[in-house]
Specification:
This protein has 236 residues and is mainly α. The chain has one domain. 64% of the residues lie in helices and 3% in strands. The protein is built from 9 helices and 2 strands, in the order αββαααααααα. The chain has a two-stranded antiparallel sheet.
Length: 236
């Protein structure tokens, strides 16, 4: 994609939107625990019960497509792909106890693994596809094994999430909206489709917020906000 510096949303803006959506989602989970009335429907729309907790979760569904897109773009622009992948994996491992504590009230639980593992596996699938592109059968077998591992490891969004990240990268030169059909692989298709709107406004620029020290801010924020919400869930 040719960068457009005059209009649109930078990578920084997309990341901020994603972080806000994720925080709203997780805050909704916390509020649903401490205020059970939030799980009571206040309106029925098209036969579906709508409640405050559900709305916050719906907003939260916008986060993963944005994070996945940023990984698909980031691997193209990073100067050191090994360090980029290592950062994702280390952050995923360090965040897992906070994730388990918040979602499962246990410091170690293998029911499901946090979304940073999904992002890392998306990164791994892209890396293998690019490295083995001259050997298509080897590339397909390697990528398929990564996608399968997402199901075996029970990461958030599973194989569909990894496949979505991979397709967003492989179709990066397709400037038509068809690139974003990859988002329909995800659950909550309406929210996934809505996330295509900010993605289509992406201008190809990193944005001024992504200074060196800010590039890793999300890796700190992710476990930190889970820790804070876990404490609030237990004390309020």
């Amino acid at each position: 994609m040719e960068p457009n510096t005059n209009k649109g949303l930078s990578g920084s803006a997309l990341k901020i939107f994603a972080i806000l959506a994720m925080t709203i989602d997780h805050t909704g989970i916390m509020l649903g625990r401490i205020h059970p009335c939030m799980t009571d429907p206040f309106i029925v729309l098209a036969g579906q019960e709508i409640h405050p907790y559900g709305i916050m979760r719906l907003i939260g569904r916008l986060a993963f497509p944005l994070f996945g897109f940023l990984v698909a773009e980031g691997i193209t622009h990073t100067r050191n792909s090994v360090r980029y992948g290592a950062s994702l994996l280390i952050a995923a491992i360090l965040s897992e106890p906070f994730y388990d504590a918040f979602f499962f009230s246990n410091a170690l639980d293998f029911t499901r693994q946090n979304v940073l593992f999904t992002l890392f596996l998306g990164f791994a699938a892209i890396s293998l596809a690019e490295k083995l592109k001259e050997r298509p059968w080897a590339a397909m077998a390697s990528v398929a094994s990564v996608i399968l591992s997402a199901e075996l490891l029970k990461v958030d969004y599973g194989a569909a999430g990894v496949a979505c990240i991979l397709l967003l990268h492989l179709l990066k030169d397709n400037l038509s909206p068809y690139r974003y059909l990859a988002l329909l692989l995800l659950p909550w298709p309406m929210a996934a489709a809505t996330s295509a709107i900010p993605l289509m406004l992406y201008n190809g620029q990193r944005g001024f917020i992504l200074a060196k020290w800010m590039k890793y801010a999300f890796y700190v924020y992710y476990p930190l906000h889970l820790f804070i919400l876990t404490v609030l869930s237990a004390t309020l």
